[in-house]
Amino acid sequence: MNDLDILTLKHQGYCCSQIMVILTLDLMDRKNEDLVAFSRGLCMGSGMDTGPCGILTAGMGILALFAKTDTDRLALMQESYLGFFKELAPAGVGCKEITGEYFPAPHPETCGRFLSSSFSRLMAVLSENGFDPTDPPS
User: Fold this and answer.
1) What is the number of structural domains in the chain?
2) In a designed cystine with 39, which of 10, 21, 59, 131 is the match (CB 3.0 to 4.6 A)?
3) Is 132 helix (H, G, I), strand (E, B) or coil?
């Protein structure tokens, strides 16, 4: 994954949550149009002024995808990812807090940077917890 991949997906009309899901599916060499369509509902604060950033919620879902029923490990991974995200977004994790005056649209610079760094951190969290992002558990 690189910034060009993110930009390409954005220009194809995908939102932040969908980009996170597509990048993950690409690593796994899988396609799942239903999951990609579903993840659009997480974008732009899930359609709420006070909703959380879709990059955050998509990341949490991706962690759950790998953890399956291991709720203890999921909680640890989510805590790690959330801690990182809070450092990345010191004004708050809400979409509107992150995009500011651009809401309800993505902030052109901030959102791309958040996507890139958050996806990298998400993959690191998976690896640190014994998961191979290219080979999810069955």
Assistant:
1) 1
2) 21
3) strand
The pTM of this model reads 0.94
Sign of CA dihedral 54, 57, 132, 124: positive
List the pLDDT tens digit at each of the 138 positions of the chain. 678 888 899 999 999 999 999 999 999 999 999 999 999 999 999 988 889 999 999 999 999 999 999 999 999 999 999 999 999 999 999 999 999 888 888 888 899 999 999 999 999 999 999 999 998 777
Domain of residue 114, residue span: 3-128
In angstroms, the CA 45 to CA 41 distance is 9
